[in-house]
Design goal:
By secondary structure, the chain is an alpha+beta fold. The chain has one domain. The protein contains three helices and four strands. Strands 1-2-3-4 form a four-stranded antiparallel β-sheet, with helices on one face. The model has no long low-confidence stretch (mean pLDDT 87).
């Protein structure tokens, strides 16, 4: 799959942080910035975050995924293992 999408802004657990996620053609990526705009964390090198579940697990500490269900649904279309991971994703976000 080579489709590119994002950046999509995402709610953070810490309201002073800003974050964005997306899909770069081979997997997912994320970036978290603090109140000064300094990078707190980022990920998404090739093969690192291949599946949506990988993105959710890597960012759970920062991002408020239970309140981003619409975005999770939008990102599902980029996951090549969509059907096999749906129950796990549902458990992760509480949907």
């Amino acid at each position: 799959m080579s489709e590119v999408a994002g950046p999509y802004p995402v709610l953070c657990r810490d309201p002073s942080y800003e974050a964005a996620v997306g899909h770069h053609g081979y997997g997912f990526w994320f970036r978290v910035l603090d109140e000064r705009g300094a990078e707190v964390d980022a990920g998404g090198a090739l093969d690192e975050l291949t599946h949506l579940k990988d993105l959710l697990e890597a960012t759970w500490i920062y991002l408020d995924w239970p309140n981003e269900r619409a975005l999770v649904d939008q990102l599902r279309r980029f996951d090549p293992a969509l059907h096999s991971e749906k129950p796990e994703i549902t458990q992760l976000i509480g949907a």
